[in-house]
Input
Amino acid sequence: MWLNAIDHIQVTSSPEAEDAMLFFYGKVLGLTEIPKPETIKANKGAWYVLGNIQIHISIDKNPDNAASRRHICYLVSDLQAFQKHLQAHSVEIIADRQPIPGRDRFFLRDPAGNRIEIAEKFTNQENDF
Output
């Protein structure tokens, strides 16, 4: 096998949504910000870490995020409690239209329109993916 792991995921933001994106990822989602290399600090955005995976927010003058189905999926241990937390921050929840066996989930869009899936896996499932 050639691939060993996922190192990072990059999501894009327009310059106008940058402050909202940094608040959303750092405060609403509660991700830990990590320093960007000196060579790219001037490019704006931020880097965060969750476990062994980094999430990079990059600035793009013309992102077309709202039309895309690409997404990151974050796992949570209590889907309903996290949904209430998001709603307390006025995050719009998008219902799951295509259920997947073994998990409950919903979707949302970050302030720049990037699609995010939030899922809770059921325990003792045959297809644990």
